[in-house]
């Protein structure tokens, strides 16, 4: 039994990613508690408003490239042609870095316009200028992580994730300590600065790791890799963009819709009767306090998702239908069990957790309602990864877009009438719809 576990890359990889994921989320969880107490729920609301911009920039620059690198590297693993694998990594890096630099310049230069006209909150402008600097750094370690996911060596991405979190939190604590000592009043900008410092640390670790990796595995007779990469750049470019372009387009559309959703929640709360401060506070409590707690156990399913895509891709390429069926059935069974377990925990202890962790009763109420998302999210996330591994990216895109459009309907129609409860109902209904669609899509593999 032990030897089977040791030889199973999915189990080992999931264990490594889950352990570091939990450690990272554990640190981040208490970090958010710290932020909420230092900057308040309104400050958290302003902080959360820049998340859509960061997510959209990730979609534009590297999201599709990372997945494409992972998939093509996984396909070359059996051939042991490390030059070809490195060529895909190099090509993906050049494409993504070009896009990320353009994105950084655009966000930094038009931060005022983005803050006022898109986010509808002028306080986010200085935060956008700071966060834009993290985009090229995130691109570097995302490309490298995509390579290591493809060869199912999860230690490097796990280390990058953990180090990024430790450095981010540590740097903000040090800045806060310095401000307190000198009598300065810290602002939410320091939390964003910490994010940039954390991305820089993660980038450095990933660069060291990938250099050591190729130094170790490349035979002496291979010669310099750069001429080979340049020679095969066109072929690698076509391969990567064939997969990355539709993936990136899908992610951009989805993140744009998510951005619209996030940006319009506070204005819709104003229509319901909140004042500006209360609307930002309610938004901050939901997205910065309640949702992170609900998503905390998702470290397990997220780890499985990352590794399922190359595993299913490899199984499909080899015609191993039984392996795909096994992955589908286990994803549904264990996702449901895990979800029910955490639903019970969050529903029973939601109010107590809200008061204990955030000293906020509203957070407790949100946690109780959101607890019913757990089984739906866990099943849908793993099945989405399987469908992507099978090449059904268009299908998963339409499922996600349909779910988002339903949520947007609740944002514009339900929030003005029912307040934040209207949005919570939208979250539950849209996630239920997406999960049912995923189950229908994989029914022939069950």
Strand-and-helix sequence, N→C?
A: HHHHHHHHHHHHHHHHHH
CA-to-CA gap between the ends? Answer: 25 Å
The overall average pLDDT, rounded, is 83
Which percent bin holds the helix content?
over 70%
What structural class do helix, strand and pairing data support?
mainly alpha
β-strand percent reads under 5%
- Rg, Å, rounded: 22 Å
Number-wise, the strands total: 0
Low-confidence stretches: 1-7
Tally the helices.
18
* Largest beta-sheet characterization: none
Overall geometric form: globular
Number of domains: 1
Tags for this model:
446 residues, mainly alpha, 18 helices, 0% strand, globular
Give me a quick take on this structure.
With 446 residues, the chain is mainly alpha-helical.
What features would you describe in this structure?
With 446 residues, the protein is mainly α. It has one domain. Helices cover 87% and strands 0% of the residues. α6 packs parallel to α9 and α11 packs parallel to α17. The relative contact order is 0.12. The N terminus is likely disordered.
